[in-house]
Write a sequence for this structure.
């Protein structure tokens, strides 16, 4: 066999031998596809689940109803409906307690996505302080109202369905003092809620990011 024949024979063997494993370009393509699919999956992951968003907006509706209602009954602007407005105010307060507890439990078991890293650390700290401040006050506020009402000797009738038992002995002087604290806590809740709403609108209309939309569409 001549040298030319042997060279041709080797060339034919190399040409016919199967490729073992993916090529380098194929491996790079697979890595790129995996990375893109991971980024795509992260992009479509909701910041808040549907349940979290529903609980949030129910709480927001109740609180935004309670604030003007509290102002009306505190100033006795209700006229003939004053007693009915008191009952409605107390009923909503009773509903807020388990609702906020449910939100806390759900948030603990289903934590939302963190805020974007381009938001300054001070703003992230302020957001967390506002959120947790509202959680605490929304539990303390109805409890102080329940204690103050019990100390006053008035019933707590929930939406006309049932009556809560008193949790404090009758003491009108203590009741008046606690109702004053109740009013101050209400002002604090209104201020935190206004800051929360203002920050959300700032993000949506000034920064033009998705902070508000996280709680609307996820």
């Amino acid at each position: 066999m001549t040298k030319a024949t042997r060279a041709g024979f080797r060339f034919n063997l190399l040409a016919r031998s199967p490729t073992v494993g993916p090529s380098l370009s194929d491996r790079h393509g697979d890595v790129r596809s995996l990375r893109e699919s991971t980024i795509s999956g992260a992009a479509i992951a909701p910041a808040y689940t549907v349940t979290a968003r529903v609980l949030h907006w129910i709480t927001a509706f109740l609180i935004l109803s309670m604030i003007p209602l509290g102002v009306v009954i505190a100033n006795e602007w209700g006229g003939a409906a004053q007693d009915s407005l008191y009952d409605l105010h107390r009923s909503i307060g009773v509903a807020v307690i388990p609702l906020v507890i449910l939100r806390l439990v759900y948030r603990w078991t289903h934590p939302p996505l963190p805020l974007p890293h381009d938001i300054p650390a001070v703003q992230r700290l302020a957001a967390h302080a506002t959120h947790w401040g509202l959680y605490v006050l929304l539990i303390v506020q109805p409890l102080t109202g329940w204690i103050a009402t019990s100390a006053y000797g008035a019933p707590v009738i929930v939406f006309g369905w049932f009556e809560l038992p008193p949790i404090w002995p009758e003491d009108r002087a203590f009741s008046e003092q606690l109702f004053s604290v109740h009013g101050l806590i209400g002002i604090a809740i209104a201020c935190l809620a206004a800051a929360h709403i203002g920050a959300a609108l700032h993000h949506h209309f000034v920064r033009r990011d998705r902070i508000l939309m996280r709680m609307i569409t996820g």
